[in-house]
Each structure stands twice: as C-alpha cells, then as structure tokens.
Amino acid sequence: MTTHTVGPPLVGRQLQAKPPRGSPSGTSLSIQEPWTAMLSNTHRDHLVANIVGYAGKDVVTTDTKARVGEYWRQVSPDLGARVAKGLGNGG
Fold first, then answer.
1. pLDDT tens digits for the chain (91 residues)?
2. Would residue 59 count as lying in a domain?
3. Owning domain of residue 82
4. Any idea what the Cα angle at residue 44 is, between residues 31 and 20, rounded to 5°?
5. Which of 10, 26, 32, 57 lies 20 to 30 A from 51 at CA?
6. What are phi and psi of 29, to 5 degrees?
C-alpha cells in the first residue's frame, strides 16, 4: 500500500481555520456574511447564474427546482429569491 504525503503533516492548531481578515463578526462567519458582506454585486450575480445554470437544466424536476430555491433562502432570503426567480419559481 502506497501513501502519498505533500509537505509536513498538519497537527494541532494548524487544523483550525482562522476567520477571514475583516470578518464582520470579528471571530467567525455566519452563514449569511459571505453573501452580504464579502461578495460584490458582480460576484453575487455570477453565483446566482451558476446555481440557476446547473439547477435549471431540463433534467431537473420542477419539485427539485423549488427545493433549490428554498435551500438557498436559508443562506440568504435575497439569494433564495433570486435563485427561485431564475428557476421560474417566483421570487
């Protein structure tokens, strides 16, 4: 059996991710902060377009499309509304 390692093993505090510099909460990110504080309008538009592009394919059922919008509403009401609108499920 062959094991592959890249660099030294990670141990202790190295495994604990630090919050991004300038995080609005100061210590950790809430689920909405990347959407509301860290993404520019252009990045938000791209994220919505990517989600709609994948979930909007013909093979995806209408029920699944509705659940996709509700899923993203848990991250941000605005994000969920934009995704739902893009998938034709209102907004």
1. 455 555 565 555 544 455 555 555 455 567 677 777 788 889 889 999 999 999 999 889 999 999 999 999 988 999 999 999 999 986 5
2. yes
3. 32-91
4. 45
5. 26
6. -95, 135
